[in-house]
Amino acid sequence: ERLVYLRVNLSIALLLFLIFILASRRVMSADSQAVMNLVRYSALIPSVVLALTVTFLKDGRRWYPRAISLLAPVALGAIAVLVILGWSHGQPLLFSALVLAMIAAYVLIGLQFFGAVTANLLALAIFTYGGLVVAMPSEELAYNVLVLLATNVIGGAVAFNVEHTRRREWLEGRLLVELA
Fold it and tell me: How far apart are alpha carbons 80 and 131 in whole angstroms?
């Protein structure tokens, strides 16, 4: 049953990525598209498609947590790179895609708490480093990093509470089975 929900959530994530790709293609200049397409089609889209494919495997329940813990950092890192590339080509509007992707990592794709924190902090580090490399103004970089940190605190709190509740319900269910 959980795999069905993951398929739906990953399909939603893939659809959102495609919408953001189309939107970013409209606002970005043609000369920046080649590098951005390389990142999009070599890291971002394959990560989501592979995660979705794992949910259809016979042992998908067992393999999905391992796969998503490897694929989520790749996808989030790719989005961070795309945001920095967009900014370096005069388009700061792509930043919101990174915020939304970080939230999705906590609540949408079935990533466990520590995996989500790790993936998001890696994306934050990539964004921060990229901002320094492309000489983003310090005020803008500091503000964006603050927004990403707040996103991680809020997303982390939600993910922790959801995971805690799920584990508690599982343990209570096991206790009821033992008592019956």
Answer: 10
What is the structure's pLDDT at 140? 96
Q: Any idea which residue has 């799920």 for tokens? A: 166
Dihedral sign for Cα 61, 62, 65, 67, please: negative
- DSSP SS3 for 137: coil
- The string of pLDDT tens digits covering residues 13-70 is 889 888 888 888 887 777 778 788 888 888 888 998 999 999 999 998 899 999 999 9
Token representation of residue 78:
């790719």
CA distances from 106 to 95, 101, 124, 157 (A): 18, 9, 14, 9
In angstroms, rounded to a whole number, what is the distance separating the alpha carbons of residues 7 and 71? 15
pLDDT at residue 163, rounded to an integer: 87
Q: What is the DSSP string of 31-48?
A: GGHHHHHHHIIIIIHHHH
